[in-house]
Write a structure and sequence with these properties.
Strand order of the largest sheet of chain A: 2-10-9-4-5-6
Largest sheet of chain B: 7 strands, mixed
Structural class of chain B: mainly beta
Largest sheet of chain A: 6 strands, mixed
Strand content of chain B: over 45%
Largest interface: A-B, 26 and 24 residues
Distance between the termini of chain B: 40 Å
Oligomer: heterodimer
Number of helices of chain B: 0
Shape of chain A: globular
Order of helices and strands of chain B: EEEEEEEEEEE
Number of strands of chain B: 11
Radius of gyration of chain B: 13 Å
């Protein structure tokens, strides 16, 4: 099974900050890597699919990069509505594992 | 508008069974693979199972193998998760989700709470 790790597990940031979250797979996953945002009590929302493609309707301040085993989600200028938990997921092979999540909090 | 509506959650005793349903609308159900993902209280997301378009292929997390069965009825636009041998650690909100590009999950239901307790 492919293991997914995320760093940091939590971060505090201010409005307008640039935020970077990293996801690492235990083996190469060929860009079959997706990022989700989840707010408290709500279903997750797809932000980025296939490592770099912005899902329709998602603000352009979100971007994804990476390849092989290492991937990054960047929020260029943090907005109030971005405070949430972010998860990566690989769909390169089954089981299609999620990372443990990164909670973004207000500083 | 894509809509996924789960039902069938509830309280069940350890060792019991439950079937979750997910009714889909707003898209051509027969053209997309579907998934179940769960989230235990206060915990992260855990992928549970997936089924291909024509039910040819099914996939399971180790935690679900041998106890859970995913299926779909394309005539009813409905996804199912049959769960048996339930354990306390299966307590979670269960989400159904539609696959999009590269199997990213582009639409999710609101979730169904399953509580396994005596």
């Amino acid at each position: 099974d492919i293991q997914m790790t995320q760093s940091p597990s939590a971060l505090s940031a201010s409005l307008g900050d640039r935020v970077t979250i990293t996801c690492r797979a235990s083996q190469s996953i060929g860009s079959y890597l997706h990022w989700y945002q989840q707010k408290s009590g709500k279903a997750p929302k797809l932000l980025i699919y296939a490592a770099t493609t912005l899902q329709s309707g998602v603000p352009s301040r979100f971007s994804g990069s990476g390849s092989g085993t290492d991937y990054t989600l960047t929020i260029s200028s943090l907005q109030r509505e971005d405070f949430a938990t972010y998860y990566c997921q690989q769909t390169y092979s089954s089981p299609r594992t999620f990372g443990p999540g990164t909670k973004v909090e207000i500083k | 508008e894509v809509q996924l509506v789960e039902s069938g959650g509830g309280l069940v005793r350890p060792g019991g069974s439950l079937r979750l349903s997910c009714e889909a609308s707003g898209f051509t159900f027969t053209r997309y693979a579907m998934n179940w993902v769960r989230q235990a209280p206060g915990k992260g997301l855990e992928w549970v199972s997936a089924i291909s378009i024509g039910s040819v292929s099914t996939y399971y997390a180790d935690s679900a193998k041998g106890r859970f069965t995913i299926s779909r009825d394309n005539s009813k636009n409905t996804l199912y998760l049959q769960m048996s041998g339930l354990r306390a650690e299966d307590t979670a909100v269960y989400y159904c989700a539609k696959e999009g590009e590269a199997a990213g999950l582009d639409h999710w239901g609101q979730g169904a709470l399953v509580t396994v307790s005596s």
